[in-house]
Amino acid sequence: MSVLQNFVSGLNVSALLMVAALGLVVIFGLMKVINMAHGELIMIGAYMTYGTTTVLAWPFAAGMFMAFLSTAWIGIMMERLILKKLYAKPTETLLATYAISLMLERVIYFFYGAETKFVAMPIPGLLEIGGITMPYYNMFIILFSLLLLFFTLYLFKYTNFGKKVRAITQNRMMSACLGIETANVDTWTFGYGAGLAGLAGALLAPVISVTPGLGAPYLTESFMTVVVGGVQSVIGTALGSVIIGEMRTVLGGFTNTVMAKIIVFVIIIIVIRFKPEGLFVTERR
Amino acid sequence: MKKSKRVLALLALLVMLASLTACGSSAANSGPASGGSGKTEGEKIKIGILFSSSGTTAGVEQAMINASKMAFDEINAQGGIAGHQVEYIHEDYASDPATATKKIQKLIQQDEVLATVGCYTSASRQATLPTLLEENSLLVYPTYTEGEEVHPNVIYIGAMPNQQATDYIPWLIENEGKTAFLVGSDYVFPKTCNKQAKILIEKFGGQVVGEEYAPLGSSDFAAIVTKIKQAKPDFIYSDLVGDSIVAFYKEYKQQGLKPEDCPIASIATDEMINKAMGNEYAAGHYTSMNYFETLETPENKAFVDAYYAKFKDGSTITTLTEAAYDSCYFLKAAIEKAGYPCSTEDLIAAFAGLEMDAPQGKIKVDEENHCTWLYSRFAKCNADGIFAVIYESESAIRPEPWPQVVYPELGGKLPAKPY
Question: What ipTM was estimated for this complex?
Answer without folding.
Answer: 0.82
